[in-house]
Amino acid sequence: MRNLNRFHLNGLRALEAAGRLGNLRAAAEELGVTVGAVSQQILKAEEQFGRPLFERHPKGLRPTAFGQDVLRYLSAGFAEISTGLTLAERRREGVLTVSVAPVFASKWLVWRLQRFREQHPDIRIRIDADVSLVDPGSSDVDVCIRVGRGGWPNVKAEKLLDQLIFPVCSAAIGERLRHPRDLAAVPIIREPTPMFGWNAWLGPNGLDESILGDGPVFSDASLCLDAAVAGQGVFLGWETLACDAIAMGRLVAPFPDRYDTGISYWFVTARSAPMTRAAAAFRDWLKAELAVEQSSAAAVAAFTHSGTNSMT
């Protein structure tokens, strides 16, 4: 690595920024210097390399073949440096930034975070509620909790929980439901773009969604659940969405059957960096909490099934 002593870091940064952004002005804005300063740094770096790295054009800069080779390694190197510095800052601050879907955050996670804080008082959690898949290796996010089928590129994804779906409604509507075909006689609450349709639950019961009637439509699952609590109809929910409302008696699950959609919850981390102690602690805590949730859900389903049998 002795050849690093021959080049100025500022010159290499100017080369990388200009090559990535395509013009001097954008590079100057990113680096916080003047256009003239960037131009001089590039010229000095080209003198040190002994050949030009860019072709100058009226619309900007275009890397030469040699420049393309150099810039590829410079971009990768500065990305690694940035990752290392970000990791060091996170460890120093003791903050774990978690990107999570808003519905999961509001209906399940925030109600349990105090238990994590009590177990790990040295770790501060910052929740970033967002549905997009962020790469923890190239952002200020440490970990993501995502819902899907997995297989995302350039990240590590560890399954936390399979998503099981089942109808939920108010107790008053639940009294009218003794068999899945009774759903034809009650309003059905829907999302415009759900992750799964009613056939995922009706199909195993020998029915399809053509039997279902109309009902209110809301833009996200959280609003749909609130509408079910308000007695506006039946919604096809899942455990982490509906478990607290069921436990508090605000909703009931009128049927015992819960079916797998092929969709799961995943703990997503950077592929290029080792998992931090804080991230590992948060993952282990999530798994323990979700295991408790599964046990509780199984007990509720068994109780519902025994109650259904006693009424038939």
From TrEMBL:
InterPro entries: LysR-type_TF_proteobact-type (IPR058163), LysR_HTH_N (IPR000847), LysR_subst-bd (IPR005119), WH-like_DNA-bd_sf (IPR036388), WH_DNA-bd_sf (IPR036390)
Entry keyword set: DNA-binding, Transcription, Transcription regulation
Domain HTH lysR-type: from-to ranges: 7-64
Domain of life: Bacteria
Pfam families linked to this entry: HTH_1, LysR_substrate
Record-linked PANTHER family: GLYCINE CLEAVAGE SYSTEM TRANSCRIPTIONAL ACTIVATOR (PTHR30537:SF26), HTH-TYPE TRANSCRIPTIONAL REGULATOR (PTHR30537)
Family label: Belongs to the LysR transcriptional regulatory family.
Protein name stated in the entry: LysR substrate-binding domain-containing protein
